[in-house]
Amino acid sequence: MLLKNISYFACLIAISHVTSAKFRVIREWNYVNFTWPSITSYSDALQQQKYIPENVIMAGLKDFEGFYYVTMPRMKSGVPATLTRISSGISANDTAPLFTPFPSWQMNELGNCEALQNVQNVEIDVFKGQIWIIDGGRTETLGTDPDIKCKPKLVIYDLRKEENVLSYTFPENVASFNGSFLYDIVLDNTDDGYAYISDNSGRDPGIIVFSLKERHSWKIRHSQSMRADPKASYFRVNDVTITASLNIASLALGPRIKSSEGNVILDDDREVFYAPLSSLHLYSISTSVLRNQEVAFHDGEYQGNVTDYGTKSSQTVGMLMDNKGMLYYSLLASNSIARWDSSTPFQTGQKIIAKDDRYLEWVNAFAFDGQGNLTILVNRLNRFIYDKFNLSEVNFRLIASNVGGKSYLYDERYNYHSENGTQSTNSITTSTEKPQNPLKPGTDQDPYLAPAVPDPTAEPSSESTITQSKSSSAPLSCLSIMVLFIVNLGVLFTNC
Ligand SMILES: *[C@@H]1O[C@H](CO)[C@@H](O)[C@H](O)[C@H]1NC(C)=O
Ligand SMILES: *[C@@H]1O[C@H](CO)[C@@H](O)[C@H](O)[C@H]1NC(C)=O
Ligand SMILES: *[C@@H]1O[C@H](CO)[C@@H](O)[C@H](O)[C@H]1NC(C)=O
Ligand SMILES: *[C@@H]1O[C@H](CO)[C@@H](O)[C@H](O)[C@H]1NC(C)=O
Ligand SMILES: *[C@@H]1O[C@H](CO)[C@@H](O)[C@H](O)[C@H]1NC(C)=O
Ligand SMILES: *[C@@H]1O[C@H](CO)[C@@H](O)[C@H](O)[C@H]1NC(C)=O
Ligand SMILES: *[C@@H]1O[C@H](CO)[C@@H](O)[C@H](O)[C@H]1NC(C)=O
């Protein structure tokens, strides 16, 4: 009852135009539970409501040296730890492992501003073995009365030496004490290291730049591209209606290595890709603009141009780019995952690589390991925000596939030529490629996950797909009564 041992792996329906991305469920949980120090500490936490299972949501994901690092933002009360890890890899007989607070229980202590308070995402410098943790400070952000005791900060922790490297508190004009919402982070190793962090704030959204060398941060604003598009503030995910104006959320960093007319170019001026959650557009801004502090002077707006690539078919919350410029991102309203080779035009180059109404309900995060495996975290945030979690059902899943890419972080040591043969399928998509037949659930599994005993009840059946799509085409009756006064991803979504 406590831990579910599941002896099957369900295979998702995947439609791929390039390589056949086969996604399989590798972990699944009804709710989050932890490796408590003792039975007493567990029962005390339950009794004192320091642990409320239905209030804990998994949000961010990274995969590094044998562990999945999973964040649990304190959007509601009763979240005992905000950064955790579990072992990654094929330890398949426990598919619902307990989460271990990371680096320790103490470093996750609620109300202690030295400790981690509210972590939405992390990034790991794979060469130095250091995890960069963005801590929004405020907790219970989904409630009417968020707790604003601690300031937003950035913490760097060395995973190999097991020690803190840095704790940096953002100044008020960069990440405001009670108005900011640090959402996502990408790392750029140029010039001793920069982090680009999205501030999903309702009042003052932007991209925060942190220079490790200078221990200094600033914020670049561009309202036209970083604020929500009112026309894209309303959408449905299965039978849940999302009515929200949400600003810039996920980020992806483009590779340093570029291929242009057959030549390989090394270029430190990279692109940071971003999209407001409430928007159909994908934008990018170059890192040379972000790194130029003068652009941020006087808390002003960037006056130059950003790149607008055009539109996607739905809103996006999770995204990740590999080291060859292949972008993976969620399409929330269609329960799908898309991929775009950034060397092709956006409008014609986007491909849906997996779609499933049941298994891909709110794809929130993506992570690469170093071996070409892409893991996807599905968290049903659409239900969580409306208190509709049913603890008798699976609410969280990790779904993985070997897509043959590596994180954008591997750009420096990536030898473009050495992989020319094995990776050629990834480089170009042409119109002659035909979509493959959808995979048959339960039969088409990658060999590396065993045991693979299909369980009929776990497979996405065509019936469930039909039922779901019926409900998602139901009349949009909420429109007439919706309220739009949304501030950010923590304080969001009006009910209707
Ligand atoms: C949570 O995990 C602990 C072990 O750390 C276990 O004793 C407890 O029964 C679990 N609770 C639930 C509700 O799964
Ligand atoms: C990742 O991919 C490699 C093959 O490239 C495979 O051997 C390994 O088992 C995969 N790991 C997981 C967790 O799927
Ligand atoms: C799971 O695998 C581990 C290591 O292979 C083994 O020690 C353990 O007994 C297994 N658990 C179950 C429930 O099969
Ligand atoms: C929070 O923000 C409001 C403006 O919206 C401001 O008046 C107030 O002083 C802020 N509180 C703190 C503690 O900074
Ligand atoms: C931005 O784009 C506009 C319209 O394309 C152009 O007129 C203007 O010169 C550009 N500004 C900069 C700074 O490149
Ligand atoms: C919760 O899920 C279980 C299993 O799917 C179902 O039997 C039950 O009716 C659900 N409860 C609610 C309140 O929807
Ligand atoms: C490309 O791959 C082929 C076969 O795998 C190899 O013979 C060739 O040397 C490679 N080219 C480069 C530039 O590495």
UniProtKB/TrEMBL annotation:
Region (Disordered): 420-469
Signal peptide per UniProt: 1-21
Protein name: Uncharacterized protein
Keyword field: Secreted, Signal
PANTHER family referenced in this protein's UniProt entry, alphabetically: PROTEIN YELLOW-LIKE PROTEIN, PROTEIN YELLOW-RELATED
Gene3D superfamilies, per database record: TolB, C-terminal domain
One GO term describing the cellular component: extracellular region
InterPro entries membership: 6-blade_b-propeller_TolB-like (IPR011042), MRJP/yellow-related (IPR017996)
Compartmental location: Secreted
Polar residues bias: start-end ranges: 420-435
Family: Belongs to the major royal jelly protein family.
